[in-house]
Amino acid sequence: MFLKPQSVFKTGQFVSINLLNLSKTMEKNNNEYALVTGATSGIGLELAKLLANDGYNLVIVGRNQETLNNTAAELKSFGVKIATFNKNLFYPDDVYSLYAELKVNNISPSVLINDAGQGLYGKFVDTDLNRELDIISLNITAVIILTKLFLKDRVDKGYGKILNLASIASTSPGPWHSVYHGTKAFILSWSEAIREELKDSGITITALLPGPTATDFFNKALMNNSKIMEDWENFSTAEEVAKDGFTAMMKGDDKIISGLKNKLTVAMSNLSTESMAAHRMGEMQKPQSQKD
């Protein structure tokens, strides 16, 4: 359930909302909002641009207010309203308070983009457990909470769209990046399950499965020494992935694997045993310094 309204104000977080006052001559004639997490960079930013270009007002969420302000300034050129929320989605309380503040401001998004997510590179025995628990909280817990609150708000209205970032990492075990692969496997399975539950509700759920994409994700995940980075020049662009995801979401498709090469990778994984798929992925992701 939502946090009590007073909890929104006592932390001082409510002042973080910044609804840009665009001139009425620039605003598009649309009362629909799209909520986008991870909207300040990469695939999330490109999805936000596509939504704004389609006339959706935007709710964007991030941990850095200055970055949020800069992103909002970029997006306002599309002539839509932008609401920024300074929230840390690693913390469930921030996820709940985000939706409480939306309710206070009479904003009921009809589109939810669960884009925010992180990974951590290394052998599981060596990696930081607290960091991995944070990643599970961001990649899974925050997505579940936002989706639950979105659905509670939208089911009675009879329409809405959700796009969940699942990654081709969801289709095979991922040595050297095991927790990230595990979280994305959950997101894909769970998205397909609740899509079936909601098939007569007017609300669609689409899973987007990009492959390696030229964003800051790998730097944040400490993957710069991974062998997978040797193919950086052939990575998909965030724009390409966002277009595939946006198109599939608007059509109401169940999922979309972005890029032909990634479709082939998933097909190979589907034909392999789990141990074979794990070995292949391990070879792709092991450190560049490690001998073959």
UniProtKB/TrEMBL annotation:
Coiled coil: none annotated. It comes from the Bacteria. Pfam families: adh_short. The keyword Oxidoreductase applies. The keyword Oxidoreductase applies. Keywords: Oxidoreductase. CDD domains: SDR_c. PANTHER family: DEHYDROGENASE/REDUCTASE SDR FAMILY MEMBER 7B (PTHR44196), SHORT-CHAIN DEHYDROGENASE-RELATED (PTHR44196:SF2). Belongs to the short-chain dehydrogenases/reductases (SDR) family. This is SDR family oxidoreductase. It comes from Chryseobacterium kimseyorum.
